[in-house]
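Q: Structure for this?
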Amino acid sequence: MAWSERLRDRASCKLLPVNSSFCVYNRFMPAWDEEAPGAFREQVCLPMLRGSQNQDGGWGYRPQSRSRTEPTSWALLALRSLPQPDPWKEILDRGTEWLLQTQLADGGWPSDPDEKQGCWCTSLALLALPSQAPDSKAVTKGLAWLRRTWPAEGGFWWRCRYWFERRPQLVRQNFALRGWNWTPGTSSWVEPTSYALLALQSPEIRDRRLLRRRKLGEAMLLDRMCPGGGWNAGNPLVYGVAGTPAVGPTAWALLALRSERSRTEIIQSLDWLESAARAVFGPASLALAHLCLETFGRKTAPLEPLLRASYESSQFLDDVLTFAWTTLALTPERTWPAAAASGGTA
Amino acid sequence: MSISNQPLLLPSARPPSRVAIRQAGRYDADLSAILLETLREFRLPVAGRTVLLKPNLVGLDPERVIDTHPAVIAAARETFLRLGAAQVLVGDGPSLDRDFEAVVESLRLREAMGRLGNTMVDLNLEEPRRIPLRTRASHLRELYLPASVLQADFVVSMPKLKTHHWAGVTLSLKNMFGIVPGSCYGWPKNILHWAGITNAILDLNSTVRPDFAIVDGIVGMEGNGPIQGRPKPCGVLVLGDDPVAVDATCARVMGLRPERIEHLAKAARLLGHLGEEKIEQIGERIQQVRTPFAVLDEFAYLVAPASSGV
């Protein structure tokens, strides 16, 4: 039985009290009211995000771990995307300040404040900064970093070496289409490229060089789609064998390609995701699939009962990212990514 | 602290290694009994210590043919607890899927091990610390490594017996790629590929050399591994305190020449024994369990002739 089917079974049962010895953030939570609509977001996700913010304003991947760029960005984005973020102003301001403090001189953001090189987290930090300040110095520097950052593959000498090593049979992809990498000196991959494209979706961006990079990144994503739709980390075909798509990369790639929604590849991939969403194995995948399908106006199964059942069994393994993505997915009136008007619940 | 302090010795200066091969035809066999009997022979210093089991959890595996099987992980955990370990953690940093809980649930690890919260560790999201590497095979010089690995007293590499479309085979040495945190390097940890897979394997294992290896060879994978190959029943568990010797033995069981597998040949210079004359065999003989694995054409040179005795 797939995880989601097991969860549906569990979701139909009365939930047990949360094991307080296991869950370090239980102390932030009020009494459980599973009947109220939106209760899970209000009573579990938001208190967890509030309670796990560190003194310095950032978030770690887990409560009480040191602040890192990625969880801080996702927590900020989730809270900022609430329809009424005003009650969260003080938390948002402190988180924003942490992000601004940790930006590197060259405009990038490192994954860890001890690191001196920017990475994929730059895109996430740009997404998380307040939208009313697109011309701020930090955003301008961050966008310039994205524009300047190229993956290691695809240059002339690299292509020569690849050809001489007789490895063209290994993977099938167009190396001239370059996206963004996870870390400097490595190849383009689906998720960091998707994050960068999401950061470049603002209509305020008019720099032609950035717009050209955006087009190239979109072409790279379409080139890396798995045969039949969907994306994995970035290898659609290895030694002639089709790669298996995965929920996370597919959801991010689709969100990054929202402007191309009528393309056959997008429709195929949405179909794949819709089918995959019925048999996902974890709450993060469940939330991302829901977030993406709802954004594209596809019908989705009720999310909250499944998440509640999952939370009861694992407390989402204390993963701040899962709580942030879950908050976004449970907020249909969110400001990012805005859900399509025709979306609905099956 | 699991940063290796073992001296990097030339083969001639190193004592012989011991590798055990145990037959286990099915995952519902009494694997705990097999492991307990075998591990007692090794007299491992685990009493009162924290043991980290590092299985190979590449990504989602609902068919249970890609990742180390949960029955083997659960049996190893139970065995180390019975040997007196104070705590046995199970940790990995899957390289292809960020959703750790989904990877764990797809394998149905909870059914095998019970509640996971205090046992399972997502090494991708652990607090990292920058550690200088002990060797300079690659250009990396240093890597972030996760707290659970650095704080463990005893690290056990628990791969599945598989071919690999870049490295030839993926066994206990290559399995250590999983300790490198995705939260620093991404999914996959592409920095290791760009550093050269062989060289990255050497640097990583010289720095955090597994104290022990348990290879799940009950059902392995042949052909286009590590994720797109075919399941290959082999019916063995291979165990030992020298990961190079364990991997060399596994390669021989797979009908491959370990001396032609680049990372094994290089690891034999400083990290462990490759030659059969330096490996004391416990349990089954290689010939008794030899099960030739199919390899991609690119790796045909690894295949040992059937008459070679390997």
